[in-house]
Specification:
The protein has 382 residues and is of the alpha+beta class. The chain folds into two domains: 114 residues, D-Ala-D-Ala carboxypeptidase, C-terminal domain (Peptidoglycan synthesis regulatory factor (PBP3), Domain 2), CATH 2.60.410.10; 242 residues, DD-peptidase/beta-lactamase superfamily (Beta-lactamase). It has a seven-stranded mixed β-sheet with strand order 1-17-19-20-15-14-18. A five-stranded antiparallel β-sheet has the order 3-2-12-11-10, sandwiched between helices. A two-stranded antiparallel sheet has the order 4-5. A hairpin with a 2-residue loop joins β8 and β9. α1 runs parallel beside α6 and α2 packs antiparallel against α4. The chain is elongated, with a radius of gyration of 26 Å.
């Protein structure tokens, strides 16, 4: 027997699967996604799970691997990496692409290489990092794939550490948003580097290419990208008060269009959405009969507080349904999952939040279970 209890609530963010959200908002970007950092909810999505050329936005995966090595203690900011001729030829001044202007044989601190990647978008810096961590750029790609799988990227494949054009180098904007969220969550000590506006190396000063750092006071990251194939792209984040949003946009036609569209989508997200505490840790949802236990009933409660992102005009269209067996069969321990709360919001996938036991209920004695069985057969569960 199943019991459902209707409640008011909002939807959790989930992995997208071809879903188009907030179709009333229009953007010139070919692919776009807007995510709430705290809840993981998607506020806007357009072709978000399609694998596209990420250009230099994929340097975020290179940085994620490097930050992970710093965090586990295998590297330090003061360590120095040597610049190979290969790194200079493929990513240096002679390459014609974005460069940190490294010199062959130069030894550079990891801290400066991070700035060279994030502020100057240096392809040479990425190759130096790859070669010194893994021995070669190809072997570093294996590291990128490993870490991407670990954090749940579903629509990404890598061929290099730089984002330079390659038919096998692809990411979805959704994966880039997930990656950006992990970087901000896992490496708060390094995240401020993303907002530094200029960096000088070998007497050459270059500015950060992220347009939102100059047009939005709340913006503080993350990475631009541009190639002829990829178009103008941006992975960005901004924090206003206690709320942080992450956006990824790809396939725009110019630097100005990228700047305009990115600011417009970010501003729309802050204006149209709010976060609410919809379920509270320990909140009692139902008191449910127990079969074969030393107590006749148990409480079903919420295990942890759930915050949701809700568009202001959607509050009346959202519902939550508690689903669980009735009666519940003993034994079970306090904290065991015994049901779910199903959260439904129009236009988004349903999400389930666990319901847990509020008490430990031991199994009844053999004689007691016999009496319970007779009562259940005669009159059903009470």
């Amino acid at each position: 027997m199943r019991l459902s209890k209707i409640m008011t609530g909002v939807a959790l963010g989930t992995m997208l699967s071809g879903t188009v959200l907030a179709s009333d908002f229009q953007t010139k970007a070919r692919n776009a996604v807007l995510m709430d950092f705290d809840t993981g909810s998607y506020l806007y999505a357009k072709e978000a799970d399609k694998m596209v050329p990420p250009a230099s936005m994929s340097k975020l995966m290179t940085i994620y691997v490097l930050f992970s090595k710093l965090k586990d203690g295998s590297l330090s900011l003061e360590d120095k990496f040597k610049v190979s001729e290969n790194a200079w030829r493929k990513g240096g001044a002679a390459s014609g692409g974005s460069t940190m202007f490294l010199k062959i044989g130069e030894e550079v601190t990891i801290e400066d290489l991070i700035k060279g990647i994030l502020i100057q978008s240096g392809n040479d810096a990425c190759i130096v990092v790859a070669e010194n961590i893994a021995g070669s750029e190809d072997d570093f790609v294996t590291e990128m794939e490993k870490y991407a799988k670990k954090i749940g990227l579903k629509n990404s494949s890598f061929a290099n550490a730089t984002g330079l054009p390659h038919p096998d180098h692809r990411m979805s904007v959704e994966d880039l948003a997930i990656l950006a969220r992990h970087i901000i969550q896992e490496f708060p000590e390094y995240y401020p580097i993303f907002s530094v506006k200029e960096f000088t190396h070998n007497n050459i000063k270059q500015g950060n290419r992220n347009p939102l750092l100059y047009s939005m006071s709340d913006a503080d990251g993350l990475k631009t990208g541009h190639t002829e194939e990829a178009g103008y792209s941006l992975t960005a984040s901004a924090k206003k008060g206690n709320r942080r949003l992450i956006e990824v946009m790809a396939g725009m036609s110019s630097n100005q269009e990228r700047s305009d569209e990115a600011e417009r989508l970010m501003s729309w997200g802050f204006r149209e959405f709010r976060n609410f505490e919809v379920l509270t840790a320990g909140q009692k949802i139902a008191s449910v009969p127990v079969w074969g236990g030393k107590a006749e009933k148990t409480d079903l409660v919420i295990g942890k507080t759930v915050y949701q992102t809700l568009r202001k005009n959607k509050a009346s269209k959202i519902k939550m349904t508690a689903i669980y067996d009735k009666p519940l069969k003993a034994p079970f321990n306090k904290g065991d999952k015994l049901g779910n709360v199903k959260i439904e919001i129009p236009g988004q996938p349903d999400v389930e939040v666990p319901l847990i036991a509020g008490q430990t209920i031991a199994k009844e004695s053999i004689f007691g279970r016999l009496i319970s069985n007779i009562k259940y057969l005669v009159s059903g569960a009470k």
